[in-house]
Amino acid sequence: MPETVESVFARVVTRNPGEPEFHQAVREVLDSVGPVLARHPEYADARIVERICEPERQVIFRVPWEDDRGRIRVNRGFRVEFNSALGPYKGGLRFHPSVYLGIVKFLGFEQIFKNALTGLPIGAGKGGADFDPKGRSDREVMRFCQSFMTELHRHIGAQTDVPAGDIGVGSREIGYLFGQYKRITNRYESGVLTGKGLSYGGAQVRAEATGYGAVFFAEEMFAQVGEGLDGKRVVVSGAGNVAIHAIEKVHQLGGTVLTCSDSAGYLLDEKGIDLEVLREVKQRRRGRLADYVREVPHAVAVAGRTPWEVPCDLALPCATQNEIGAAEAAALVAGGCLAVVEGANMPTTPDGVRVLRRAGVRFAPGKAANAGGVTVSALEMRQNASRESWTFAESEQRLRETMRDIHARCWATAQEYGRPGDYVAGANIDGFRRVAEAMLAHGVV
Ligand SMILES: NC(=O)C1=CN([C@@H]2O[C@H](COP(=O)(O)OP(=O)(O)OC[C@H]3O[C@@H](n4cnc5c(N)ncnc54)[C@H](O)[C@@H]3O)[C@@H](O)[C@H]2O)C=CC1
Ligand SMILES: O=C(O)CCC(=O)C(=O)O
């Protein structure tokens, strides 16, 4: 039977039951690639789509650790090595109680096309654990990371699989993971992880890269219609790594970010979020957003609601998956939003995307707009391999050029396939073609 996108999707659902986020990510890509298969029957003959939807390897492991009261805890760890057609598996680790195989697979699948879009030699993987670092002491986090790496080290390496951070995994966790890898293997293998601290092989701009990159992408989108970010009102969700650096770059480019959020609600500061205060509250104290209001009394903490109800020109969802559904998208449209640029992975549901599209809101999917993080990770790998370290200015320039290039290719590919302005189609098709060509060249593996 010839391969069709419908037959592949049906098989993905049957073979991966109970994994709705993975199905959603696959559906969104398959909806774009039909016309590519029509032009390239050799892809269908080689069953590229079916193979791309099946991870090359999935590892699930026990992570036992001891809390500060001496109680034994057990979590579940994952690493899904999805596709190595373009290079070593590459993608972050997420520590969050919601993590299960379906989340890791959706993220790993998105990573295939994202990493291909960067044009850099990186395959795709993702991992994590259902561990909640919130409320845990540094020592507890360290013991958890050491136990996690005691198993993970068998599967990774600078030429094999290179993890980085994601939700709940920042520079503290990467440091503990790196220390344990070095101890177990007795190798100082800098390129085995990215997102490292600058004192031991980290790259300038990696921490900033995802947030900055998303804003550079937004800048390119506005430039298409002859506008800049200067004077734009921007709403951001999340208050972690991606959100904080997105806010910083919007402010540097003359826009005003009115909101940020966490799982308890959102913060509204009409004068523009004060980053010094936000960093103190969220990063240094690891506190709640409501603490910001104590320092900045004119701000308002809105409990149990999302920032999409605030009128804006640009929305940057930077928290988590499926945070903008149809209702939130309708609120953005009602508030005059001109563009939604995804800093997070898959923050907009398919219904949400439909509402935005119907209203003519420009929409950039995460696999294109948040590719800045993995771009600078690949540059970190390159610096580790050559034992060089580039300056902040040089690294930021390379990031900006890559985001400009990704934007241009998404735009041109969408035009080529008769879908002008459709960044989803442009990103999926361009990413898919790159991986498909390499897979075809490698034979049936
Ligand atoms: N760190 C990176 O370089 C990259 C991250 N991403 C994506 O960006 C998003 C944010 O990641 P990071 O900033 O790195 O993580 P982080 O752990 O630094 O921050 C996550 C933020 O999202 C908020 N959040 C988490 N779950 C939430 C929920 N259910 N409702 C509301 N807020 C929630 C948290 O309160 C926190 O403010 C994720 O979707 C991640 O996959 C994408 C590309 C690269
Ligand atoms: O920097 C990396 O390797 C991956 C970042 C990541 O997990 C992502 O792009 O979602």
TrEMBL record:
Keyword NAD (UniProt): yes
GO molecular function: glutamate dehydrogenase (NADP+) activity; nucleotide binding
Binding-site positions, substrate: K90, Q111, K114, G165, S377
GO cellular component: cytosol
Quaternary structure and interacting proteins, as annotated: Homohexamer.
Biological process per Gene Ontology, one example term: glutamate biosynthetic process
Positions bearing the site annotation: Important for catalysis: D166
Family membership noted in the UniProt record: Belongs to the Glu/Leu/Phe/Val dehydrogenases family.
Name of protein: Glutamate dehydrogenase
Active site, UniProt feature: K126 (proton donor)
Key words, A-Z: NAD, Nucleotide-binding, Oxidoreductase
Binding site for NAD(+): T210, N241
Organism: Micromonospora radicis
Family matches, as Gene3D superfamilies: Glutamate Dehydrogenase, chain A, domain 3 (1.10.285.10), Leucine Dehydrogenase, chain A, domain 1 (3.40.50.10860), NAD(P)-binding Rossmann-like Domain (3.40.50.720)
Matching InterPro entries: Aminoacid_DH-like_N_sf, Glu/Leu/Phe/Val/Trp_DH, Glu/Leu/Phe/Val/Trp_DH_C, Glu/Leu/Phe/Val/Trp_DH_dimer, Glu_DH, Glu_Leu_Phe_Val_DH, NAD(P)-bd_dom_sf, NAD_bind_Glu_DH
Keyword Oxidoreductase: yes
Domain of life: Bacteria
Domain Glutamate/phenylalanine/leucine/valine/L-tryptophan dehydrogenase C-terminal: 203-443
